[in-house]
Amino acid sequence: MDKKEYRRLGGRGRDFNGYSSIWLADDHLLFCEASYIEKYKRFYFKDIQTLMVKKTKSSLVTTIVALVLAIGSLLLLADAKKGWDIFWGILAGFFFFILLINIIKGQSCKAYIQTAVQKEELKGLVRVKKFEKFLKIVEPLVRSFQGEMDLNTLGIKYEESLAKSPQRQTHQPPPTGQDSLLHTVLFSSFIVLSFFIGVVYFFNNVVLYLLVAVVYLMALVLNIRAVVKQFKINFGPVLRNWAWVSLGGLGMFILMGYVSLFTLSFTNALAHRHSPMFTNEDLINAIPDNHFVKGIILAAFAVSLLIGIVGLVLSARPRAHAKPLV
Amino acid sequence: MIECPQCHSALQKEFINNSAFSPCPQCHQPIQALVFPALFYEPKAVGSAQPLVIDGQANCFYHPDKKAVILCSACGRFLCALCDIELDQQHLCPACLQSGTRKKKIRNIDSEVVCYDKIAFAVAFFPILFFYLTLITAPIAVYLSVRYWNTRSLTGSKARFVLAILMGLAQITGWYFFFKFIANHHTHFRHHG
Lengths: 326, 193
Known about the structure:
The structure holds 2 protein chains of 2 kinds.
Chain A: E1 7-15, E2 18-24, E3 28-34, E4 37-44, E5 50-55, H1 58-78, H2 84-105, E6 109-114, E7 119-122, H3 128-146, H4 151-164, H5 181-202, H6 206-230, E8 233-234, H7 237-272, H8 280-286, H9 291-316, E9 323-324
Antiparallel strand pairs in A: 1-2, 2-3, 3-4, 5-6, 6-7, 8-9
Helix pairs in contact in A: 1-2, 1-9, 5-6, 5-9, 6-7, 7-9
Chain B: E1 22-23, E2 30-35, E3 70-71, E4 78-79, E5 85-87, E6 90-92, H1 94-102, E7 112-114, H2 116-125, H3 134-147, H4 158-192
Antiparallel strand pairs in B: 1-2, 3-4, 5-6
Helix pairs in contact in B: 2-3, 2-4, 3-4
């Protein structure tokens, strides 16, 4: 593999397997997935049949999450004591920076390349702007290898190929039924959870904390059931992924709970110079004075509200293929 | 036929080379599709080897009863249509293709390359967290960097090799001084009881 033969195109996609990038050679595109081993797939210009792009909502989700976290940090900044104001200020600045970068990068997307024998997602191209730049370079090259064909001829040939195709399946109305009541209840429980967390932020009471714990456990059970149900029924990728996000959110809440517990325990131990073991009442009484823990409660409120609202919107949306998985 | 990447339903011709995004009629996902003439190419028929007609006619090295149509670009053996593998403007026989793949001598056929620069860097860097491991890993990192300095990969860089060598040498130097200190200490105790 000679680096001089290739020029890098587009951005760099990242997932659990490592980085993906796209490289341009004289007669082909090279798709490279790199971790500790680089794996290559070549797409010769003479073989490329289609380049497709679909818009995704990940940029919108990033905008909402960054905005919520930035505003949350600003609220905490307004109420912060000396010392903590720098911390919350830096955090708010960081989230606004992410927001700005996300807006500048523009609409998110997924791009695909198709040849006669394969269809691959171009993981390096995750923004529409990047895809357009990529297209400006690649389209003339593909045309130079395959020749020009006017739109009319393309249309006629495409109609012919559609007619020949055995799996003709267009303009079917979305099937009704198979609505996920379980998902609706799950995301409603997140709204309820956010309500109780919001109440706890203002009123420090043992009973309210117990209520939060009960609603949390209820949401956890519902979430596990929804995820299990998703293995049997296809509710579409967006709702399915959001149920996993919500499960991840609930996992995060456990982590946040532990962090809060240790923070409260050790902060009080240091302040009063005694052992960090406390009764539950001691811990709860210490919450209003601890800005870090209050920040965590506010973050949990924002996250659960966000998961609940987005989840309810997604559950209410008509789904094209809510059908049993074979 | 082109399919919606979301719901896999066939798309109508209105989607072809439309400069704007249009919603899929089935799942309403905004899609843009650019179609090239290759979509309508008929699959090429695979050439079948012709049997020998006249005695003394050049025959295939691998199939003596078949007519040779071309020479292998690497070894010069006569090949029939069945044995001829066209790759990167070269005509190769199966044996040359196999050995070329193994020795990584054929351009544009590599399907994977090990990134030794990343491995060397990881071997030099991560064991720092458990510093006693560096006694073993530091020489390995230096060895990997020197041994695979000329490995060619797309995302690799010499900078990682340099960093791995520097970190490995620093760790080895650290261990050298540590053992020297221990030895001095030991001698000191032996002399002074």
